[in-house]
Amino acid sequence: MDGQQKLWIATFLSQRSGKNPGAAETADALIAAWQDIAAALHSIIGRQGIAALYDRSVSLTSRKHPWLAGSRAGTDNFMDSEALRSVVAQQNASDAAAGAGEFLQTFYDVLISLIGGALCEQLLLPIREAPTHADHEIRNL
Amino acid sequence: MSKKVDIHRLATGVPGLDEILGGGLPEFSFNLIAGPPGSGKTTLAHQLMFALATAERPALYFTVLGEPPLKMLRYQQQFDFFDNAAINRSIRFVNLSDDTLTGGLDAVLQRIGAEVKTHSPALVFVDSFRSLIAVSKSEDGPNPTLQQFMQQLGMLMTSWEATTFLIGEYFNESGSNPVFTVADGLIWLRQVVQRNSVIRKLEIMKMRGQATTPGLHTFRINNAGLHVFAPALRAYAPGKADPSLTNTRVSMGIPRLDEMLGGGMPSGYSVLVAGPSGSGKSILAAAFLAEGARRGETGVIAAFEQSPKRSRSGVAELIDSGRIAVVENHASDLSIDEILLLLLTEIKRTNAKRVVIDSLSGFELAVAPSFREDFRESLSRMVTALASTGATVLMTCEMEDRYADLRFSPYGTAFMTDSIIVQRYIEVDSHLRRLIAVVKVRASAHSHELREFAINDKGIVIGDMLRDQEGLLGGRPTKKRGDTGVDPAIGRKGA
């Protein structure tokens, strides 16, 4: 994992949450980012594969941010993004930003540990190259 | 209007496979890659896909309920052929596990159809197809629509001009199976475990529209993927015999041996040098190669006993200088075809005129146990293939001295070679002494003498017949009356 990759994850989230977001904005941004990532991977690893990675990432992140533990996927591998949004939105702004950022980073790290950085980058290339809402705003200025 | 359809054949990118297939994979064919777990099915599928897929000829790889896709990607990317940059460009992976679990075969067929219509792939892979069948049986016994599913899938893929591969775990090919019936091509992978060796074998059980090479063909999987060892007689296309070789003789590098052979070994002949341990077979082989190097000819040595790089007979220097190429392998799971391919590749690469196999005894130990049953037949095939290169081939063979009979090879291979040189020990005056004789040179006059030879720091020195002795082949000769027994060539007095 190089600095560029860490920076990308942080930027990926911040582009969606804007400057100085509150917990609710962070929660919305996290769900938007997560849905983009899940969409990029869904075709390849399926819903179950994504749910398993999500669960593992929540488990690892909740060691430092125990409040995330409540958003684990159910036994039917159903991932409730509303539950994730809700649990993040209930934190203070600082904890929400730290927890959300760390969750995405952990997910990314787990994926890299399984398939390597190069393939991970390649699979997520569509969302890295896709214009974000923030990009649109910048272009429209 | 009577012009027949021209079937385009795709180069698979798997070394040796196109030769066995009869020129490549027929485009738009519907194929099954079958075999037990761990036999290399998914690796073969990926290797084919990465070799064939391009932006103009994209591939779709459907994963079902077999190996989890993340694990498959984790392991497949270890192979050299795996190109990250091709993913989501010329190659797309599509997971069908949700469709399989929720909707069964109908949902799977619909999803495959939708993806095929969206991406118009030229290549489609379904891995593992076997798990689809398991799903179809899980409800109320065997699913009657499996055959329909197969026919619809086959029709869909053919109509969309997609060359298709179903990858499935099958343990045996017996019994009727709709998959086998519908498939145009059936590539079966096997692995045979015997003692501590694993031999992988591939068989093209069916390939509509073309003649394939029948039988089981060994293959190996390494970092580059699969390498199939096609039978050498097909793989090596011998050129026209070099007219300059006709009736020419090759010096063995041992002057009096050339004389015994009737003026050297006829060029392009195969010669067996048989003798007991330590009798000087490898030294004779080294002299043969060194003589070639001296005359500007390159050589190849396949060593299965001592490493020729540690040889003190001058071969090591010739190897270092590139005048002799080495095929050296001490693995215990080689197939004859693999060794032969290595040898033929080196002969072709170096344009070698002289080839040494040292020794057949070591070679027999190097091949996997499962090949030893057919060793004699395989050896015959190897001699024929090597002879087709035009090189003069020398093979050594360790053979215990048996004084009750005269044998030249433990494999009954003597008839295969054009020439035989035999070395033996005899006891004279409580000393071991060595004899050499030319037993056979096909279609050529040669000496029938048993001559004594010695080995000194310059190599083999052949002396005269032991005229004062008789009963040499019995191992313990007796002295004739009235003979001094002094041999001027090797400077030793006989008993």
Keyword list:
heterodimer; A: 141 residues; mainly alpha; 7 helices; globular; B: 495 residues; alpha/beta; 9-stranded mixed β-sheet; 15 helices
What does the model show?
The complex is a heterodimer of chains A (141) and B (495). With 141 residues, chain A is mostly helical. Chain A has one domain (22-129). Chain A is 74% helix and 0% strand. Chain A is built from seven helices and no strands. Chain A has helices spanning 3-17, 23-61, 81-89, 93-115, 117-123, 125-129, 133-139. The longest helix of chain A is centred in the first third of the chain and has 39 residues, at 23-61. Chain A is globular, with a radius of gyration of 14 Å. The termini of chain B are far apart. The model of chain B is unreliable at 235-240 (pLDDT under 50). In chain B, the strands form six sheets. Chain B has a nine-stranded mixed sheet, with helices on both faces. In chain B, strands 16-15-17-18-14-19-20-21-22 form a nine-stranded mixed sheet, sandwiched between helices. In chain B, helix 4 runs parallel beside helix 6 and helix 12 (336-350) packs parallel to helix 15 (375-387). Helices cover 29% and strands 28% of the residues of chain B. Chain B is an alpha/beta fold and 495 residues long. The longest helix of chain B is centred in the N-terminal third of the chain and has 23 residues, at 97-119. Chain B contains 15 helices and 26 strands. The A-B interface holds A 42-49, 53, 114-116, 118-119, 121-123, 125-126 and B 63, 68-71, 73-74, 77, 84-85, 87-88, 92-98.
